[in-house]
Amino acid sequence: MELWDVFKRRKMVRSFRQDAVPADSLDRVLASVLHAPSAGYTQGNEYLLIDDPDEVAWFWGAIDDPSDAMGPDDAALLAPVVVVPLAHKDAYLARYSQPDKQPYGLGDEEKWPVPFWYVDAGMASMCILMAAIEEGLGAWFFGFAHGEAEVMEHFGVPPQFRQAGAIALGYAADADPLSAGASSKKRARRGVDDLVHRNRW
């Protein structure tokens, strides 16, 4: 597939078939993170893969907001695989405390103008989203505000890691009712000339 075709096909898919994703396909999608940029080549961020059906079901239940709980029809369309990118701030601070990076003073968290542990997690997430298209999968990057502590404890994630969103993966359903209310359905896409300021604002 041509790269520009991948860009054009990239969209958030929220409704999935429950077919299992082949392990080799999933491995290729996950291997895409090896090619994501990494500040100082820290390679500090890691990824929680959830593909056991019982654990996936537990995850969706744990992050479901009880004040706006999902009904059984919608729950039946949730992805069979979830990847949680995990940002590791301490790895970046340690890397930038090493002799070749020490002159930048970034061993101190307060000196970072932008927390690149999250930036890098976002870049790796985009690699996963693009690789999913190449594998014929649908993907949805989303944030979860409910249940983070329970998820981290349940899956044994060490406390120095922080979730940087989550990525749902699977084969897209024929229809995507869970995306019916998505912002992309209600807001026009801004054009390049609206977004790019050439040489000055």
SSE succession: HHEHHEHHEHEEHH
Mean pLDDT comes to: 94
The number of domains is 1
CATH class: Alpha Beta
Q: What is the count of DSSP helices, taking H or I runs of 4+ residues?
A: 9
For CATH, the homologous superfamily is named as NADH Oxidase
Question: Approximately how much beta-strand content do the residues carry?
Answer: 5-15%
- State the CATH topology: NADH Oxidase
Note down, in words, how this protein is organized.
It is built from 9 helices and 5 strands. It has 201 residues and is α+β, with helices and mostly antiparallel strands. The radius of gyration is 19 Å and the shape is globular.
Concise account of the structure shown:
The chain is of the alpha+beta class and 201 residues long. It is 36% helix and 12% strand.
Topology:
Elements: H1 3-9, H2 23-31, E1 46-50, H3 53-63, H4 72-75, E2 81-87, H5 89-95, H6 116-134, E3 138-142, H7 148-154, E4 162-163, E5 166-170, H8 183-186, H9 192-195
Antiparallel strand pairs: 1-2, 2-4, 2-5, 3-5
Helix pairs in contact: 2-6
Kindly list the characteristics that best describe this protein.
201 residues; 36% helix; NADH Oxidase; 5 strands; single chain; alpha+beta
